[in-house]
Amino acid sequence: MATKQGKKDNRLSDKEALHIAETTDVSPGQAKELAKKHGKDKAKEEAKNFKAEG
């Protein structure tokens, strides 16, 4: 079965999600959702903005 070319894997590992949760004010689950929506590279930045807005 062929894989999609150019598609980035934006999933966070549990360890990565926990790190974002510890350094921001979101839960690990929210961190994973933000990574899916905005990309793995921007997840931490979006997590900081997520609670600042909410």
Q: Helicity range of the residues? A: 55-70%
What's the story with the biggest beta sheet?
Answer: none
The percentage of residues in β strands lies in: under 5%
Can you give the mean pLDDT? 85
Tally of individual helices? 3
This entry's quaternary arrangement is single chain
Our Rg estimate from Cα atoms comes to 12 Å
Query: How many structural domains can be distinguished in the coordinates?
Result: 1
The string of secondary-structure elements, in order, is HHH
Distance between the termini: 42 Å
By secondary-structure content and strand pairing, the structural class works out as mainly alpha
Q: Unreliable segments (pLDDT under 50, ≥5 consecutive)?
A: none
Report on the architecture of this protein.
The protein is mainly alpha-helical. It has one domain (14-53). Helices cover 59% and strands 0% of the residues. It has helices at residues 14-23, 28-38, 43-53. The mean pLDDT is 85. This is DUF3606 domain-containing protein. Residues 1-19, 42-54 have a biased composition (Basic and acidic residues). Residues 1-54 are annotated as: Disordered. It comes from Mesorhizobium japonicum R7A.
Offer a few descriptive terms:
DUF3606 domain-containing protein; 59% helix; 54 residues
